[in-house]
Write a structure and sequence with these properties.
mainly alpha, disordered C terminus, globular, 165 residues, 73% helix
């Protein structure tokens, strides 16, 4: 499966998923994208202390924080970015995930969850450098794709299993 096919399939899964499925997917994915180890590579001089504190709090409480609170934390984070470019990739991933999650909470738009899925795939790609022509060739990328499918289309795994018998 090439990258454009992967993107199209993820979009199809998000559009076709139940409300419960997209919510569970969003919660699991945003939690994965704001995990503490992603932030460990960030240099001290990339964020002000206030921004770092806002980011840590937002990440730790991502599933319980309101959209309004998240909006305020993100404003503090954006105001406290000290570099013009070349922000640590883990930091960028976490901030982006929080922004997409906030917009999902505010507007219930599935497109924001699609963006979370793409950030999650990019996070894996950053670790393993997937081949654009065979994006699922690495075990890590294949596992992430299966995680996405499992959450958004729980019956898909059962159907594939029944076809193999």
């Amino acid at each position: 499966m090439d990258y454009s096919e992967l993107e199209a399939d993820v979009l199809r899964l998000i559009v076709g998923a139940t409300e419960g499925g997209v919510r569970a997917f969003g919660e699991e994915t945003v939690t994965r994208l704001v995990r503490p180890e992603l932030l460990s590579g960030a240099a001290e001089d990339e964020l002000t202390e206030e921004a770092r504190s806002a980011l840590t709090t937002a990440c730790a409480n991502v599933l319980t924080i309101s959209a309004a609170e998240l909006h305020d934390r993100l404003a503090t984070i954006y105001d406290g970015i000290l570099v013009d470019d070349d922000l640590d990739p883990g930091l960028l991933t976490a901030i982006s995930a929080l922004a997409h999650w906030k917009r999902y909470l505010e507007q219930n738009r599935r497109g924001e969850l699609y963006e979370l899925a793409i950030r999650s795939i990019e996070d894996i790609d950053h670790e393993v450098s997937a081949d654009l022509d065979d994006f699922l060739a690495t075990p890590q990328m294949a596992a992430e794709y299966e995680r996405i499918r499992r959450l958004l289309d729980p019956g898909a795994g059962q159907e594939r299993g029944a076809q193999r018998r």
